[in-house]
Design a protein that fits this description.
It is a multi-pass membrane protein. It holds the Pfam family Mpv17_PMP22. It is found in: Membrane. This protein has helices at 34-64, 68-108, 120-141, 143-165, 175-203, 211-238, 243-261, 265-274, 281-318; strands spanning 4-6, 11-13. The chain is mainly α. Among the domains are: 42-91, no CATH class; 143-309, no CATH class. Strands 1-2 form a two-stranded antiparallel ribbon.
Length: 319
């Protein structure tokens, strides 16, 4: 039998016991306060963490907190912006609908003096032919004004299409920008093109096979360079840009716009100079101009917006 004598701090063992318990080894003392200390430490860390989180939340609230008056002012400004936006959209929609109504009415009522006894089919059948006859009569009586009106309409539509292509909703276009483009088309493109096509015929008065390619080459080098420069110059003046900014824009856009035109106009001008009569050329060209004016207007306004953003960024960095 094994005799076990217990002393306060020592175990004396006799007999066969496992080798891991050796004579004279002390038993580990159990500290009843150790777990309590751990619990207290954990509680303290939790309390400190919650206090820090509360302070951070209070700081965020204090940063984002605005007085009630400022919040009311912000809400009123937002409402005013929404109201202005709706009013602008309504004005644009009214302009588009009014212009479209007038145009369609004029085209469909060309024969209103002779409608007695006509059916709707007859009205629609003869309207295109008689509108064309009326257009030819206007070209004979007042060709410059007729071509100015056509170019003004085309340049306005082209800028509107460009704004829609840039991502603006249909009736949220910039009226001032459309007016600028239409003004350039009306005052300059129509009249200049009328005299240019007459000058081009006088410059190449031959009937040889090479005349058409020569006219196309002249158009896409000399005339395109002149007209693109005029277009960007006048638009810059209408935007009240400085001469230095206008010259910089022309310098930047001159070669890209000239080469971009070579992707569109040479094929179109083979028809212009080879098939279309001189008096009818501007109407054909203006139909193609809808695409070209969209490109011109988009490119021009991208440059202006880029310059404006650069100025804004430089001012903000200085502040």
């Amino acid at each position: 039998m094994a005799a076990l004598c217990c002393f306060p701090a020592t175990i004396i063992v006799s007999g066969n016991l496992p080798s891991r318990i050796r004579i004279g080894d002390r038993l580990p003392r159990h500290n009843p306060f150790k777990n309590q200390r751990r619990l207290i430490t954990k509680r303290r860390s939790l309390i400190v963490g919650s206090i820090i989180e509360d302070r951070e939340a209070i700081d965020v609230k204090s940063v984002n907190f605005k007085p009630e008056e400022e919040r009311k002012e912000d809400e009123e400004e937002g409402e005013d912006r929404d109201t202005d936006r709706l009013m602008s959209r309504g004005i644009n929609a009214a302009i588009v609908l009014a212009a479209g109504t007038v145009a369609v009415t004029k085209l469909l009522t060309i024969d209103h003096d002779y409608w007695q006894g006509w059916t709707l089919y007859e009205i629609l059948r003869y309207a295109p032919e008689h509108n064309w006859v009326a257009y030819e009569q206007i070209l004979k009586t007042n060709p410059v004004l007729a071509k100015m009106a056509i170019s003004g309409i085309v340049y306005s539509l082209g800028d509107w299409i460009a704004q829609c292509y840039e991502g603006k909703p249909l009736f949220e276009f910039d009226r001032t920008r459309v007016l600028r483009s239409g003004l350039v088309g009306f005052t300059l493109h129509g009249s200049f093109s009328h005299y240019y096509y007459q000058f081009c015929e006088a410059l190449f008065p031959f009937q040889e096979w090479w005349v058409v390619p020569a006219k196309v080459a002249f158009d896409q080098t000399v005339w395109s360079a002149i007209w693109n420069s005029i277009y960007f110059t006048v638009l810059g003046l209408l935007r009240f840009q400085s001469p230095a900014d206008i010259f910089s824009e022309i310098k930047t856009t001159f070669w890209p716009m000239l080469t971009a035109g070579w992707k569109l106009w040479p094929l179109a001008h083979l028809v212009t100079y080879g098939v279309i009569p001189v008096d009818q050329r501007l109407l054909w060209v203006d139909c193609i101009e809808l695409i070209w004016v969209t490109i011109l207007s988009t490119y021009s306004n991208e440059k202006v917006e880029a310059q404006a953003s650069e100025i804004t960024n430089s001012n903000s960095s200085e502040d």
